[in-house]
Amino acid sequence: MSNCTLGDGERPTQRAAANGERTRDERPTQRAAAPRRSFPHIADAFANSPNGKAFIPFITAGDPTLDVTEKLVLAMSHAGADLIELGIPFSDPTAEGPVIQEANLRALANKVTTDNVFNMVARVREQSQVPLVIMTYANVVYSYGIERFAARQAELGMGGVILPDVPHEEKEEFDEPFAAAGLDVVSLIAPTSHERIRAIAADARGFVYCVSSLGVTGVRSQITTDIGAMVSLVKEVRPDLPCAVGFGISTPEQAARMASLSDGAIVGSAIVRMIGELGEDCVEPVADYVRRMADAVHGV
To answer: Which fold has domain 3-22+38-298?
Structure first.
């Protein structure tokens, strides 16, 4: 993930206008749904895990198909995932490396839409209450309508959204409608100034996504960032706020190490690569991998 992704660059409203989409000010206001309590919140993923540490896998919805995504969500939940990130495909995923970019392109080639993803989640909810969050980009939410997006997530008992291209300074316009629906907009922190990390932590909700290194997503052989120092800065401001580490984790040893320094580990590229290689035959191998990773996190 680049510095631009986390704090600089053009406003989401400018991006929406540039893409010919209506900005928030041009859309009719819709009332967000009342907060729901029948499904777990994001914080429950940490509180209900065996040791207070969460293993959080990411997959791109619709890659290779939405039917397989549904099976993957259920299989990963049964394998020990505490919280699952579902990516809604987007044509310009600026925070992603080539593995997840290609997954986005495959899903878009399948004509996957935001409503398709929500309908798939509705089918999952008939069988599982595993905590779920959406990871996508500002234009996806703008195009759908911020209040409408939040209301649909609330109806489905989801926990909230992660928007890696929305800087902290512009997060409030998402925070308010999502909070009104009982949902969290998860904040991301990168290796940056101490004061900026403290400022982001001060109003973070759900958990803090600690980015292990600058750049885009992808597997890394080593993670050299001082994760412990980043987590300590968050805990100075918000002692009870969970922190989970993502970007570059691919082995059980790395997952256990990151969980020992924080409250959880997030893995995306390693799983998405497996899905890309195996296609519709990926469900059982992914479940086996998730089980090993979850065991490593829960064994800390």
So the answer is: TIM Barrel (3.20.20)
Predicted model pTM = 0.86
Which DSSP state fits 280?
G
Q: What are the residue ranges in the chain where pLDDT is below 50?
A: 1-37, 215-221
pLDDT at 124: 98
Q: Which residues pair with 246 in a beta bridge?
A: 211
pLDDT, residue 22, reads 45
Q: List the structure tokens of 30.
A: 């819709």
CB 245 within 8 A of CB 213: no
Asked whether the beta carbons of 269 and 261 are under 8 A apart, the reply is no
φ, ψ for residue 187, nearest 5 deg: -90, 150
Helix axes 252-261, 227-237, angle to 10 degrees: 40
CB 277 within 8 A of CB 69: no
Classify burial at 105, counting beta carbons within 10 Å of its beta carbon; exposed 0-12, middle 13-18, buried 19 or more: middle
Q: Where are the domains of the chain?
A: 3-22+38-298
Q: What is the pLDDT of residues 155-172, one digit of tens each?
A: 999 999 999 999 999 999
Distance in Å from the first CA to the final CA of the chain: 27
- Tokens representing 286 are 């992914």
- Residue 226 has a pLDDT of 87
CA 172 centroid distance within chain: 18
